[in-house]
Specification:
Blueprint: H1 2-21, H2 31-37, H3 40-54, H4 67-82, H5 85-102
Helix pairs in contact: 4-5
Amino acid sequence: MIWVVIIGMGVLVFLNRYVFLEPRLPVQLGSNVRQFLGFAVPGMLTAICGPIVFMPDRQLNLHLDNPYLISSAIAVVLVLLTRNTLVSMVLSMAFFFALRAWG
């Protein structure tokens, strides 16, 4: 049963990608749909990272001793200042690990 679910989901994901990425198929998305899909990635990242940053111990933690909160704020500032994703990610991860080792 598990293999059927895994294979079925693989086929579903493949067909979903194929329909929109194959240039010979006559499927075109409207501008409103494209604009709406532009919000999918930030929304997904917020849904994944939000609980990790704000609730590391399954409780809301907005104190300055929360290394997740401080490191994510540093990451946002670094992205805005450097406009370089790799540099911002490496520096904010180093800052996070330094905070975890120090605290």
